Amino acid sequence: MLLLRILVLATACVAPLAAHAGGAAKKVDKTWAKIVVAFVPAAFSAKAAVEEKTAFGTPDSEVNLDVKFLGGEGKFSMKAIKAKFGAPTKTEKFDVKEGAKVIKLQQLYYGPISFTIVAGSDQPRTISLPRKLWGGKGVLENAKEALATK
């Protein structure tokens, strides 16, 4: 009887894993790469690659870069990104205190890329990506390579 219980328990645990492993390959979302190729100028990408080299952390840690500092002010439009690529997959709202003011911010996620905007604004303040996507040849080249692979 004990052997039967163990067999039933083992089957119940292994069956979902086997079904998952045999399923169709999961489609990789490359929206982040399409956004980068469509909106990131080469000079912005090059400057971001230099800044990434001074960042601390593992390759998977998120690096937030200031859009204005990198010369990308006016180059990104959240309205245009939403029109071309749809609504973000995730949105977070939070408040930040700058001096005596409290500013309401939103973080809009499109896969691994996210944009921080002042609520109601069209221009992002920061762009965030994992460090490994900023570095190397630069985010623009990394995005082009991601789109070229299947």
Mean pLDDT: 79
The biggest beta sheet reads: 5 strands, antiparallel
Distance between the termini: 50 Å
Low-confidence stretches: 2-25
Number of helices: 6
Number of strands: 5
Could you characterize the architecture of this molecule?
With 150 residues, this protein is α+β, with helices and mostly antiparallel strands. Helices cover 42% and strands 25% of the residues. The protein contains six helices and five strands. A hairpin with a 2-residue loop joins strand 2 and strand 3. The longest helix has 20 residues, at 2-21. The termini are far apart. Mean pLDDT is 79; it is low at 2-25.
Secondary structure blueprint with pairings:
Layout: H1 2-21, H2 31-39, H3 42-53, E1 62-66, H4 78-85, E2 90-98, E3 101-110, E4 113-118, E5 124-130, H5 131-134, H6 139-148
Antiparallel strand pairs: 1-5, 2-3, 3-4, 4-5
List keywords for this structure.
150 residues; alpha+beta; 5-stranded antiparallel β-sheet; 5 strands; 25% strand
Summarize the structure.
With 150 residues, the chain is of the alpha+beta class. Helix content is 42%, strand content 25%.
